[in-house]
Amino acid sequence: MDLLEYQGKQLFARHGVPVPDGAPASSVEEAVQRARELGFPCVVKAQVQIGGRGKAGGIKVANSVEEAEEHARAILGMDIRGHTVHEVWIERASDIAAEYYASIVFDRSAKAPLLMLSTRGGMDIEAVAEEDPAAIARLHVDPLLGFQDFHARRLCFAAGVDADVVRPVGALLARLYDAFVAEEAMLVEVNPLIVTGERDVVALDAKVTLDGNALFRHPDNAKLRDPAGDDPQERMAKERGLTYVKLDGDVGILGNGAGLVMSTLDVVAQAGGRPANFLDAGGGSKAEAIVDAVEVILSDAKVKAVLFNIFGGITRCDEVARGLIEAFAQVKPTVPFVVRLNGTNEEEGRALLAEADLPNVTVEATMDGAAERVVELAA
Amino acid sequence: MDLLEYQGKQLFARHGVPVPDGAPASSVEEAVQRARELGFPCVVKAQVQIGGRGKAGGIKVANSVEEAEEHARAILGMDIRGHTVHEVWIERASDIAAEYYASIVFDRSAKAPLLMLSTRGGMDIEAVAEEDPAAIARLHVDPLLGFQDFHARRLCFAAGVDADVVRPVGALLARLYDAFVAEEAMLVEVNPLIVTGERDVVALDAKVTLDGNALFRHPDNAKLRDPAGDDPQERMAKERGLTYVKLDGDVGILGNGAGLVMSTLDVVAQAGGRPANFLDAGGGSKAEAIVDAVEVILSDAKVKAVLFNIFGGITRCDEVARGLIEAFAQVKPTVPFVVRLNGTNEEEGRALLAEADLPNVTVEATMDGAAERVVELAA
Amino acid sequence: MSVLVDRDTRLVVTGLTGREGTFHGLNNRRYGTEVVAGVTPGKAGQDVEGIPIFDTVHDAVEQAGANTAMVFVPPRFAADSILEAADAGVQTIVAITEGIPAHDMLRVYTHLRRGTTRLIGPNCPGVLSPGKANVGIIPASFFSEGNVGIVSRSGTLTYQIGYEIAQRGFGNSSIVGIGGDPIVGSDFIDVISLFQADDETELIVMCGEIGGDAEERTADFVADNVTKPVVGYIAGFTAPPGKTMGHAGAIVSGSKGTAAAKAQALEAKGVRVGRTPTEVAAIAVEILGGVRT
Amino acid sequence: MSVLVDRDTRLVVTGLTGREGTFHGLNNRRYGTEVVAGVTPGKAGQDVEGIPIFDTVHDAVEQAGANTAMVFVPPRFAADSILEAADAGVQTIVAITEGIPAHDMLRVYTHLRRGTTRLIGPNCPGVLSPGKANVGIIPASFFSEGNVGIVSRSGTLTYQIGYEIAQRGFGNSSIVGIGGDPIVGSDFIDVISLFQADDETELIVMCGEIGGDAEERTADFVADNVTKPVVGYIAGFTAPPGKTMGHAGAIVSGSKGTAAAKAQALEAKGVRVGRTPTEVAAIAVEILGGVRT
């Protein structure tokens, strides 16, 4: 789960990571009021989960109430590469002497948090990483021992941080690590991490990704989940507890188990089809879940045919069949369905389908055969 | 550093360990006022760092303002085995259905925190440990992994905690462990840990020993240090940063390094003398520290002779000699001194002493010889 | 032979008294697995169809001789359950639970790697050694004893591939689902090492998917250490970057972790990679010497 | 031979630029120890009488080839300094600092025991291998090369006993102060194992003191594993129960941990225990075959 910049900054502030004063606003009036309170110059920043806001005109400095109003009006509602700006963050302008980069990544390969620090912040860090990898100091932290002062020193000296700010940068890294662990983040990134003219060290941006599986321990973070940015189908699926990813084809796909569904997409693509979605009905799918899933898949108007690819383990094929029958009764789909059932209770499942004799439903014996059939039907 | 019961309870409360409502008082008027606020029945508890307060009459239940006043008057100023009661703790009386015991000890042998839980609380736990060791469930916690829920379950089931309070007792142990680690304690002990008639689990007593070396990280705890209970010589030594333990003999002893001082006491005892104190002037002792040390040793009127036993490592013998000369100038001791100097700059040290020609100071070449000489002089 | 679970397995199931725990625990017992204990705190003395319940895994180890644990408790309790089993001296832990917080697993993984306990999963279907023992939720009826070892990040995909191989007359030494989370207790390399050392296994099938670099690291390992033939499969060629495809670990980040890159890495080290489950089965059978009837 | 430090020792001193660090670091160099680096963050490029200063221990290891570290920083920074040295790959760390918080050392000890780094101390005088290297604050001038290994929880007491043995014409393989804190990196057993394996050491002297049960555990270890003669000393017969005698470690609780109990435990396992430093020296010399002139 990705946070907006200002949500990340508020999270940072809770853990003592220094951030500029600021306030969010979702209307022009509110934005002007916040700007007045903060004083000028201040910065009006579009709150969207995508990079390159500055280039797109989503970040503007205001030197007066008039300018604040003008910028808020321009930015609120703006579309930045497919993301509509619903909120702005008004923040006191900072006096920037140097721009650094700092991040902590959950490194699944090393199985440890990876810390990175560079004095070449404020720009595209991936470009820096490619053209001059040595410009980014990196080290892993033992997850049980935790962050130690020497980690901060090593990073600062390796990155070439200005001598007079080695201590405050190190202190900020320690606080950032606290935030990473305490909030169970998968990523915390500060770009740029600035040194001000007065040699204060401040996080001028914040990118935070939280672990969705850990939100039960962080009810305040869970509330930040903002479905407004989601695709309507994805939002609907989420509300129903389904794992659904929208794609841009016309073959609707449902399977059980993430690997099998990914594989089904691939097989459909190889058969010449274009998958409309990824939908994992999950382990132990019950009939109601199947009804929900069919509704989500069919809410995408582009879908011309649907493939059910089930290999039963925890999931029982008879439950899937029952769900499909119920879905036909409730939703009355107009597009053809191809169904392939193997595994736990496959015979009962096929028998139920045969008995129900649903219109426009073909049962196939193999995954490849089912993929070919559904591609034909969608053509 | 040992805390008083009420300081321990306040520390517990900061970490979510449930304790009864209460308030400290250092005068009868204050005690009565606190009792009124808490309501009746309440308990008036002497605050001294020694066990067996109950038997000594230091814990009384008050059912009315009159009784609270009577008890406070009786207990404040009371002497409990050498400890004068300067403060009482007034606490709401608890309805006790069961008395358990819980503690966490810094186990230097296993190099891990040792947790202990027993359903036989409320009494002398050392006696329980001797007559029925199986009545105390014990386990160690990996210091890096920390306390896990399964530790709580293992302890509760092994101790035979009532089934309906396994969860709250486990939760209390988790909080107690938090306190142990966060406050850097060497010991936290709850005896009794009670189950109330309403099946709440509450710490009815609190014994907390903190690591004196860690107090720099805990300024609030450092302020709790109460020198009032110390022996006057020990208090004086503490104020001067010296490690001094008062004993009951007449040979004053100063050495450098705890092991050497302990050994010096033993050698003096073997020579037939009775050491008056343990005083470790420490590594790298400077002349001023020696002056302070001489003052502390001589402030004990029983001292009839003093032995300086120095083996110089960090400590330089010339500094010790300089300190002794300065001490003679300032303090003008009337008792004889025996001095033995070996190690770093021993020749310079001996030369300084020879030159100063202090009255009543004998220089000896060996530790055994010095011990024999000082015992003769004290006789 | 086989790997991880066999006739010596003495299984304790944490969460046995739960609905799913009971269903799969009994299923495993029906298959022939020695299910010697269940653990549910506060229910010691009860039983699930004759399987005794204990308060702690320690009691299950001491009193029922459990040497393997299957973790079937909800995600918020699962890390603790794994640590408890390891602390009790269980040597193999199979964690089925899906949705365990990543930071929990980071601590669990780091702790377990310093000891001798082997963890499979979490978010995995378990381990099946056909004819010997089944620990987990793999539907055993499709699989028979044989010489193909399968290791996979995915559950149902594994069944699919195992099933296709079985259709061609081959059986399996063991089928190991290592799980689809960012941090799993054992990775491809760990399990392939076991298969390499296992007498019965003659060919190894590994099913990877997008995300992370486990497949790339495995390619190097196979080239240097594995003499048995390895056939690969990677799911997720169609997955767009930045989207989590069901498994917490299945995500293409930027240009990293794509199926194409993984397949390429494997092929560069001489591992043949099938583009569909059917093709994987065909390659395996070709190497093993053709369809058995 | 000798243990822990010798002519191959390449020492980095953390805190070399501090007053005590400079004094003892240069003292160690004068003795012949290869002092190759100092570490003081922010002072890289400077030097202390020709010894180069680095920002981190890692730099000292990489650029100056340090393999041993002496920690001389104040207590609040010492745990971090020890962890840094271990992380940098230093194999032997000697921590002189007194007053490190006990919980810091608990974490450091647990972490280091899972790796291969050996820690001596903290709150110890260091290690002297006469004629080879001196790392720490032991006044070397009293000691010469020889065949008596000394291990001690106390600093000055060690000098006293070593001095008494030297007066009788014997020298030392190594003198190891393990420190007097509740948690030290290496205990008697660790160091006695090294002496047992060391060709040069013919007799081992161990100086214990009240508190804890390290001496009692050592008695069992010596009986089972040590073939060389061991002579013991315990300080603190005169200590009253419940009083802290300088070291946090020297806390007597009830009967356990008293000097009498420790001496008894050692004697029960055949270790002769001297009642004064002089008696220890006399026993050692008797075993070694009389005074050398």
Reading off the top of the CATH hierarchy, the class of the largest domain in chain C is best stated as Alpha Beta
Gyration radius over CA of chain C = 18 Å
Gross morphology of chain A is elongated
* Helix-and-strand structural type of chain C: alpha/beta
Please estimate the helix content of chain A: 25-40%
Q: Approximately what portion of the residues of chain C adopt beta-strand conformation?
A: 15-25%
Q: Total number of helical segments of chain C?
A: 9
Topology of helices and strands:
The complex is a heterotetramer, with 2 copies of chain A (about 375 residues) and 2 copies of chain C (about 290 residues).
Chain A: H1 5-14, E1 22-25, H2 28-38, E2 42-46, E3 59-62, H3 65-75, E4 79-80, E5 83-84, E6 88-92, E7 96-107, E8 112-118, H4 125-131, E9 136-140, H5 149-159, H6 166-182, E10 185-196, E11 201-203, E12 207-210, H7 219-222, H8 232-239, E13 243-246, E14 251-255, H9 258-270, E15 277-280, H10 287-298, E16 305-312, H11 317-331, E17 337-343, H12 346-356, E18 361-363, H13 367-378
Parallel strand pairs in A: 14-16, 16-17, 17-18
Antiparallel strand pairs in A: 1-6, 2-3, 2-6, 4-5, 7-8, 7-10, 8-9, 10-11, 10-12, 13-15
Helix pairs in contact in A: 2-3, 5-6, 8-10, 10-11, 11-12
Chain C: E1 10-14, H1 19-31, E2 34-39, E3 47-48, E4 51-54, H2 57-64, E5 68-71, H3 75-87, E6 92-95, H4 102-113, E7 118-120, E8 126-129, E9 133-136, E10 145-152, H5 156-167, E11 172-177, H6 188-197, E12 203-209, H7 214-225, E13 230-235, H8 259-268, E14 272-274, H9 277-288
Parallel strand pairs in C: 1-2, 1-5, 2-4, 5-6, 6-7, 10-11, 10-12, 12-13, 13-14
Antiparallel strand pairs in C: 3-4, 8-9, 8-11
Helix pairs in contact in C: 3-4, 5-9, 6-7, 7-8
Describe this structure in words.
The complex is a heterotetramer, with two copies of chain A (379 residues) and two copies of chain C (293 residues). Chain A folds into three domains: 21-92, Dna Ligase, domain 1 (2-Layer Sandwich), CATH 3.30.1490.20; 98-222, D-amino Acid Aminotransferase, Chain A, domain 1, CATH 3.30.470; 232-378, Succinyl-CoA synthetase domains (Rossmann fold), CATH 3.40.50.261. In chain A, 37% of the residues lie in helices and 25% in strands. The mean pLDDT of chain A is 92. In chain A, the strands form five sheets. In chain A, strands 7, 8, 9, 10, 11 and 12 form a six-stranded antiparallel sheet that branches. In chain A, helix 5 (149-159) crosses helix 6 (166-182), helix 10 (287-298) packs across helix 11 (317-331) and helix 11 (317-331) packs parallel to helix 12 (346-356). The two termini of chain A are 36 Å apart. Chain A has 379 residues and is an alpha+beta fold. Helices cover 35% and strands 23% of the residues of chain C. Chain C has helices at residues 19-31, 57-64, 75-87, 102-113, 156-167, 188-197, 214-225, 259-268, 277-288, and strands at 10-14, 34-39, 47-48, 51-54, 68-71, 92-95, 118-120, 126-129, 133-136, 145-152, 172-177, 203-209, 230-235, 272-274. In chain C, the strands form two sheets. A seven-stranded mixed sheet of chain C has the order 3-4-2-1-5-6-7, with helices on both faces. In chain C, helix 5 links the parallel strand 10 and strand 11. In chain C, helix 5 crosses helix 9 (277-288) and helix 6 (188-197) packs parallel to helix 7 (214-225). Chains in contact: A-C, A-D, B-C, B-D. Chain A binds chain D through residues 142, 144-145, 148-150, 153-154, 157, 163, 166, and chain D through 41-42, 44, 55-59, 77, 80-81, 83-84, 87, 107, 111.
